[in-house]
Design brief:
This protein is mainly alpha-helical. It has one domain. Helix content is about 85%, strand content about 0%.
Amino acid sequence: MDKKIYVAWFTVVIWMVLIFLLSHQPANESSELSQGFTDVVISIIETVVSPLQIDMDFLHFFIRKSAHFCAYFVLVILVFHAL
């Protein structure tokens, strides 16, 4: 077999391990991480755009769900590449 196949499947496994490790965090640690990222996003938005009324709970929810989508989207791309 070609080395490229092994490398492709190795990246799939590594990405799956990363997803597992991040999803295995306690809820409070995961929430703190996403809250810190939310704060950075808000400061960037406020710098670029005049002060807006931002629903913090919705933004936090949106960022968390977007992170899940992106993580699994990358996994799909890696699996399709390996296949």
